[in-house]
# Entry
Amino acid sequence: MFYWTYDRTIYIEHIAVNPLLRGRSIGSRLLSGFLEQHPGSDIILEIDPPVDDISRRRLAFYERLGFKNSGRVFRHPSYRRGGTGHDLLVLSYPEVPTDEQYACFMEYVSEKVLKYID
# Structure
């Protein structure tokens, strides 16, 4: 898991479980433990929009853990120059961010996270 923290918000940029180890509740335990270790934090992550079986299962996974679908889609640019961006659905925990919180998130991502583009 790789994440960024700012104010009382945590942006989870990446979570991965080795494909050979999937289906053993490792991801659920990892994320549940993370949520327990950060009480009072607003947590944001992004997933591919639910357009196929895998992406719908991914959304259901996060919803089972208490994440909310914000209904917002973020056009994430490529981390490589000349690459194409892709749409990501924003999920949050424990509640959907307000417009002000979402604006702060977008500002943080734009100023801090995306400065690492190749």
The CA atoms of residues 67 and 93 lie 5 Å apart. The mean pLDDT is 91. The radius of gyration is 14 Å. The longest helix spans residues 99-113.
